[in-house]
Amino acid sequence: MVLKNLVYQRLKEWSEEMDRKPLILRGARQVGKSYAVQKLGESFDNFIEVDFEFSQNFLPIFEEDLDPQRIVQQISVLAKQKIIPGKTLLFFDEIQFCPRAITSLRYFYEKMPKLHVIAAGSLLEFAHELVGIPVGRVQSLYVHPMTFFEYLAADGEGLLLEQILKEEKLSEVVHKKILKHVGIYLALGGMPEVLRSWIKHKDPLRCSEKHATLLDTYRQDFQRYAKKSNLKYLSLLFENIPRQLGEKFKFSKIGEYQKRELEPSLELLLTANIFNKVVHTSAQGIPIGAEANPERFKLLFIDVGLTQALLSLELSAWFIQPEAELVNKGKIVEAFVGQELLAYSEVNKKSQLHYWQRDSRESSAEIDYVLQKKQQILPIEVKSVKTMKLKSLHSFLKTHSHSEYGVKISIDPYYKSDHIESIPLYKVGSLVGELKTIESLLFP
């Protein structure tokens, strides 16, 4: 079964660039990196995949010099396939098991630029810390779980997706139909293996089993990148961070341990891309990152489906009464929006989400996400219930001169007033994504 996704489209565009560099796919385990490359390989005359974890007989090739001509020749012999620049896609998977192969990418760029070379690895970021990635000699592409739009396209709902992209305000019947799909997506999440199972079987129990397997995979990885003394802290954080979903993260809520004991393990989980920070910013100037306070942050788990599995939440209501669940599960809805914003952010660097909060005795206010769009600062307030009261959003707009308008994201249909644009949950991708790239999901 083929899942058409945005990663594949970006890979296709990279493959057609005249001045491309070797490409490194980065992101957490099981988000579909290898799958997308294998699909791209079908468009080449031949495709050679070197999995350094599975096929360790390739490792000695990189123990000598890093001359790409010699490397290609020896890989060709072992793989029993010709490697022809312009016609072959060479894929180094699990490249973290061969750090010298990471270093070799710069020489492929310098001495064999016509050869298409892609590298990926489930724990690549840890190898990067040891050997470094050749700056200026490679490109990076950050991969996230599949988005709601990708889910619609994969599940045969291209016509619905086309209406979302082309129509600002949809009929109530269509609006409610799409909200049902939002409910299904929020139950499943965007992990490709889970979505493949759903599309094939339409069985929530099978999907729950996939969630459990993926969570166990992440737990098993702890031993690969952590010292034995860190394992208990990793497990404790992994199980408990989702309980602070939507809140400012506090180490004091994680058992009896101190921040100095827990913080190194949190950094490991962030490096593994299992969690993402949403950092506080005062958002009074451009860039908003310069106004950030790294000590104040929220944490998002990689995927909303996995988040609920980790919290042992009952998922059946998402399928039976999705609109009621959208109202009842406000923190999950907020996490969904963050997941979408990350997936549609700039793909060539690791993106950082921000939020804003004002704490005072007189009044408090909070904006769930703050984005920078060119020279404008865009505040986004996520509402799981139908409401016209947007005190935090209006307060932000009054005190931030770089913000001409704000966005409310909710289950309401689309509407626009003088300073507020209200966007339905299902249109988050069209708010920040490139229309041309998203439309590629609709066409062969």
UniProtKB/TrEMBL annotation:
PANTHER family: ATPASE. Residues 220-384 form the DUF4143 domain. It comes from the Bacteria. Pfam families: AAA_14, DUF4143. It comes from Candidatus Neptunichlamydia vexilliferae. This is ATPase. Residues 20-152 form the AAA domain.
